[in-house]
Amino acid sequence: MKLIFLGPPGAGKGTQATGVSTKLNVPHISTGDMFRSAIKNRTRTGLEAQRYMDNGQLVPDSVVIDMVRERLAMDDCKNGYLLDGFPRTVEQAEALEGIASPDAVINIAVPDERLLSRLTGRRVCGKCQGTFHVSKLADEKVCPVCGGELIHRDDDKPETIKKRLSVYHDQTAPLIGYYTGNGKLKTVDGDNRPEDVLKAILASLE
Ligand code: AMP
Questions:
Q1: Is there a contact between 171 and 88 (Cβ–Cβ < 8 Å)?
Q2: Mind listing the domains of the chain with CATH numbers?
Q3: CA-CA to 24 of 20 to 30 Å: which in 5, 18, 136, 195?
Q4: Which residue's alpha carbon is at the smallest distance from atom 19 of ligand 1?
């Protein structure tokens, strides 16, 4: 199955994508994670992406589309994929139609006021990539799953979050209309417990 997870930053796309990709046995492809890994490895793509990410802006379409095209050509995508964080513009969605058109698009909806508190309190493990909220952590710096170091992403700081939300509304939200138009959109309420959101997503795919 070829799936897309759509939703504002902080909607829980990454967390849900991990559960759903395991269940459906398709690779979880997060363009944000791909860029963060490219930055860590100081590749050309990483260096180019970093200045946009640091400002809460989108990386140019041509850079993202080439990276996703290469990734989807890999062997493990033969039986499908779960794309998390791509497409983020109508131009990216149109390019994807020419690469491997999705079967369904899950829109995880969460109101803006909830997203701000989720993102400012979000910590990500540098080792296992798990995502946690400070309110649920005994120690803000240590991953409760693997013991790795928890990181407060630079782009999860308040000013950058505001920018990312406005970029989402301007450039990514139009995809809701795009995928409603071709009958592929399924919206689930993301303002619930993660296990309930997962159930709602799986039910919408049946
Ligand atoms: P994420 O982890 O999905 O929130 O992505 C983090 C940052 O990576 C975004 O704020 C963008 O700067 C960049 N990024 C990730 N995916 C895309 C995309 N599909 N198009 C443009 N920029 C992206």
A1: yes
A2: 2-111+165-205 (3.40.50.300)
A3: 136
A4: 86
